[in-house]
Amino acid sequence: MKPGKALMICYAVVSMSLNSQAQNAPITLKQVVDAAIARNFDVKNKEFDMDVSHIDWKQGKANLLPSFSANINHNFNQGRSIDPTTNSYVNSNYSSASYNLGGDVTLFSGLRWMNNMKATRYAYDASRSALQQQKDDITLNVILAYLDMLSNYDLLEQAKKQVEVTQKQVDRLTVMNEEGAIKPSDLYDVKGTLADNKIGLTNARNNLATSRLKLAQLMNVPYDEHLEIERIGIEQFATDYTATTDSIYAAALEHMGLVKQADLLVKSLQKSLKASRGALWPTLSFGGGIDTRFASTPDATGNKVPYYDQLSNNYFTNYGFGLRIPILNSLVAKHNVERSKVAVERGQFNQQATLTTLKQNIERDRLNLENTRNRYLALVEQVSAYTENFRAAEIRFNNGASNSVDYLLAKNNLDRSNTNLIIARYEYVLRTKILDYYQGKFVY
Which of 221, 261, 339, 439 is a plausible cystine mate for 251, CB 3.0–4.6 Å? Predict the structure, then answer.
């Protein structure tokens, strides 16, 4: 099955699956990834690039085959001309025909066509790696967007809890204020915090909607405010990432499409250079053919020879060798070689740049992961401490042993710490997924 047709079938299947899921249950990460890949424009363009490279490779192989051709000519002659069957002049109106079947094969051309075929094969393999890299990039982007949406789910729940806790205090203090049991400032302080919490709740809802939109656009589907994704328990993710920078880089060299693509492009350019050098060599070919002809003119005795008798009588074959020696062609071949050399040097430079950038990115992302982990662990301790502090502050405030300032300070510290913990937790998971991406490990 052609890639384009397979992609359209996949597109339809994914569309039906998404429509079904939208009506029944949250969609899974795997479904989102499959939909994004099936509908992505860049993937489709990479498919087209691969198709063209495949055609080039097939043409490269076909160039090694012998060439055959057939020629049929029918002419109507008037006046003085040469009879093609007798090679004598005639001065009359007559018709003539000639038939030819011939072919030739290149025996040696400096291995130009062989190297060209290998160059197109490497280029085709490189386009396949580029396609896989594009799919991997989309998969990573989807995973990160999916985690971002999960993070916003949790932040929304946290914002709701903040509003709920503050609302209960406002309700309690309103009754107490009416009874004159508290200072009015305590009520208004807590009401101000409730307003802040409601703004935070609105922002959390907006952030969730934005992440939902981003995910829909990655899937290239219309935005649906009811789109829901399957929740993934954070406990499913490892809290300690053991892979080192060197092991991640070694795995990336084996799995990443951009690494394979860079290597294959250099090999393709090297074969193209050899093909260019082949144009400097003589070309030896072998060819042959079968010919026959007919003319409506009479023979020496004045009789017209029948059509098929003439074809049989005039039948002849030929074969031979040809040697083409390049001497001077405006230095085109020489300059083509020089261009090919520069192309190889550029390809090797780009390959090294790709590897260097890859290593630097892995070093950066591995360090960021470690920093995020340390921050996450510190926040876990902070949340634990602020939770206990808020519990005590709430008891004191409810018993009238402290004022609203102390209570709200403890509450805001806990709220801020919980929010930071949620962000850090998903940031840590996000960074592990980036490192998994380098190693070709997509777990969903």
Answer: 439
For the sheet with 67-77, list strands across it.
Answer: 67-77, 94-108, 283-295, 316-324
Domain boundaries, the chain: 3-39+109-281+326-438
Task: Render 107-149 in DSSP notation, one character per residue.
Answer: EESTTHHHHHHHHHHHHHHHHHHHHHHHHHHHHHHHHHHHHHH
Does residue 146 register a pLDDT over 60? yes
What does the pLDDT average to over 375-390?
94
What does DSSP say about strands 80-82 and 283-295: parallel, antiparallel, or unpaired? Answer: unpaired
CB distance 354 to 258 below 8 Å: yes
Q: How far is Cα 325 from Cα 311, in angstroms, rounded to an integer?
A: 37
Q: Cα separations (Å) of 167 from 45, 163, 197, 398?
A: 54, 6, 9, 14
Q: The pTM is what?
A: 0.82
Question: Would you state the torsion angle of the CA atoms of residues 208, 212, 215, 220, taken in this order, to the nearest 10 degrees?
Answer: -160
pLDDT band at 402 (very low <50, low <70, confident <90, very high): confident
What are the backbone dihedrals phi and psi of residue 220, each rounded to the nearest 5 degrees, phi first?
60, 45
Burial of 32 (0-12, 13-18, 19+ CB in 10 A): buried
- 3-39+109-281+326-438 is classed CATH 1.20.1600.10: yes
Q: 239 burial class (0-12, 13-18, 19+ CB within 10 angstroms)?
A: middle
Ramachandran region, residue 104 (left: φ > 0; alpha: ψ -120 to 50; beta: rest): beta
Rounded to the nearest angstrom, the gap between the alpha carbon of residue 279 and the centroid of all alpha carbons in its chain is: 36
Torsion of CA 212, 213, 217, 221, to 10 degrees: 80
